[in-house]
Every structure is written in C-alpha cells, then in structure tokens.
C-alpha cells in the first residue's frame, strides 16, 4: 500500500506545472459552472462555493492525473468508485444539498439520486483528461 501511495505522489509531482495549471483552471471553471447549473435548475449544489476547490481541484485533479494513462472504460470505472465515495460523503456529511423532488428524483426516484450523480460525474475523468490534454497541447505546444 505504501508503494502505491508513493508511486501516486511521484506521478503527480512529475506532472508538468503547465499541465497542473491547465487541470486546475479547467476543473475549477467546470466545477463553478456545474455548481451554478445544479443550483439554478434546483438539482443539487454544494453547501459552500469553496467546495469547488476541495472537490474539483484537490480531489478530482489528482485522480484524473493518476487515471489518464488508462483507457476510457478504465478511467470511467475507477472514476465511478472515486465519485461514489465523494457523493456518499457529500450527502452524508451534508456538505452537498440535493433539492427535494428535483427533476432527477422524478425521473429516476430519490433512492437512485446519488448513484445517478456518481455515474454522471465519473465521466469527468475520461472527458476531463481528454479536454485538458487538448487545451494544454493547444496553449503550450512547442513551435
């Protein structure tokens, strides 16, 4: 277990600073946008705006970096585990708020809400890695 942790830390530390900045910028803006959208259509939101930083940058960015070498399916599968934990803790600790009787509750029923959210947000890992790679290459490509 110690070796896995140390290897993971090394992988993150070896990520170029420009790539880290690209991840942080994209995920921060993505998180703000999703939090705004979730609140606007009354699906779900963070209890505090700064949770975008803790969830999207401090949690999702390192996981994305560790998963980027895997296939789309494996990134999604591992991302589903990561997001399942995050969704469970967010609603259990009441740091995330699900609006009562929201559109997803009506569509899938309240018992499936967190599972649906985890399944949706697990797509962030392969989609985020693809987007960050495209943006990073476009902005920092050597000429």
What is the strand and helix layout of this fold?
Layout: H1 2-13, H2 17-40, E1 44-46, H3 51-67, H4 72-92, E2 96-98, H5 103-108, H6 113-121, H7 124-140
Antiparallel strand pairs: 1-2
Keywords: Membrane, Transmembrane, Transmembrane helix
Transmembrane segments: 20-37, 49-67, 76-93, 113-132
What does this entry show, briefly?
This protein is mainly alpha-helical. 74% of the residues lie in helices and 4% in strands. The longest helix has 24 residues, at 17-40.
Structure notes:
With 143 residues, this protein is mainly α. The chain has one domain. 74% of the residues lie in helices and 4% in strands. The chain has 7 helices and 2 strands. It has helices at residues 2-13, 17-40, 51-67, 72-92, 103-108, 113-121, 124-140, and strands spanning 44-46, 96-98. Strands 1-2 form a two-stranded antiparallel ribbon. α2 (17-40) packs across α7 (124-140), α3 packs antiparallel against α4 and α3 crosses α7. The longest helix is centred in the first third of the chain and has 24 residues, at 17-40. It is globular, with a radius of gyration of 16 Å. The model has no long low-confidence stretch (mean pLDDT 93).
